Amino acid sequence: MATIGFIGLGNMGGPMARNLIKAGHKLKAFDVMKANLDAAVAAGAAAAASAAEAARDVEAIVTMLPAGEHVRDVYMGKGEVIKTATRGTLLIDCSTIDVETARAVNAAATAGGHEMLDAPVSGGTSGAEAATLTFMCGGSDAGFKRAEPILKTMGKNILHAGPAGNGQAAKICNNMILGISMIAVCEGFNLAEKLGLDAQKLFDISSKSSGQCWSMTTYCPVPGPVPTSPANRDYKPGFTAAMMLKDMKLALQAANAAGAATPLGAAAQSLYALYAAGGRGGDDFSGVIRMLAGK
Ligand code: NAD
Q: How many domains does the chain have?
């Protein structure tokens, strides 16, 4: 079992850290929010006074931070993680951030003598609690092999997407598909209502026809057909519209930089932005069905 530095103990990082402790790893934890650090200490982690302290004398470091600017700051800026960690430390950033920052931080880590992976996750807070996350990893084969046993204590599917930044690329492509497909499913159910077609009937038929997709069969945006979907609890998240908007923006930013045409991605981003601007950013993203129905 390893000694691991864990930085960023929020909604995702908190339960991920607990699963590492449960598996027998020793954790040196740090978060700028005292309440989140206290919760990790209560679960068995040792408190570090700074990111640098969490990075000192450990075999691996896991970060789970809000956005690219925080990741840059923790590794290359005030956090001084790259500078402080012992040469050869394995650095794993699980935050969802832009591809460019992921590649820049990886290059700095490599120059500092470390092995680094970008390893964003899918599966949400319930997946973090249950240790069933999917990790999409970017980095070297050697780094992936070293990270695998650590990631397996927090997740179920550990996938290697290619070199540095490709984990983030996989994550934003996946979430752009999800964001677009959810709107398509919402429009289908709204049209069905206008045509006098029962939502359950559309679900029964479409889930066995070519309209079938995850947004329909696992996360159905109308109450009834899939009892566990957020539609059955007044669109309490789940995955908030604000988070979806963040990921859509990352996808569109990457598409603009790479010259990829993503017109539906752009339209979907505008719709989630409109939904969030109406004060619904904290609702589940599937609640966009109500806005599309003019409700
Ligand atoms: P969160 O805001 O709950 O947690 C982030 C934590 O980082 C907070 O505790 C915050 O205090 C801490 N932090 C910020 N700056 C810091 C710094 N400089 N040093 C130390 N700690 C710092 O966010 P979350 O929901 O846990 O999400 C974390 C990441 O995971 C995000 O990139 C998000 O996009 C991604 N993600 C979230 C979900 C989800 O369902 N919540 C799903 C998949 C991916």
A: 2
Which of 7, 11, 98 has the most ligand 1 atoms within 8 A of CB, as the residue to mutate? 11
- The verdict on the CB of residue 12 being under 6 Å from ligand 1 is yes
What one-character DSSP code corresponds to residue 277? I
What size, in residues, is the chain?
Answer: 295
- The answer to whether 248 touches 240, Cβ cutoff 8 Å, is no
Contact (CB, 8 A) for 147 and 119: yes
For 205, residues 6+ apart whose C-beta sits below 8 A from its C-beta are none
Question: In which domain, by residue range, is 252 found?
Answer: 169-292
Distance 189 CA to ligand 1 centre (A): 33
The residues that bridge with 138 in the sheet, in sequence order, are 118, 162
Best probe residue, ligand 1, of 9, 31, 244, 247 (max atoms within 8 Å of C-beta) = 31
- Look at strands 3-7 and 26-30 and give their pairing: parallel
With contact defined as beta carbons under 8 Å apart, do 185 and 199 qualify?
no
> Which residues are identified as catalytic?
171
pLDDT, averaged in runs of 10, over the chain (295 residues): 96 97 98 98 98 98 97 98 98 97 98 98 91 98 98 98 98 97 98 98 98 96 96 95 97 96 98 98 98 96
CATH code at 118?
3.40.50.720
Backbone angles phi, psi at 155, to 5 degrees: -150, 175
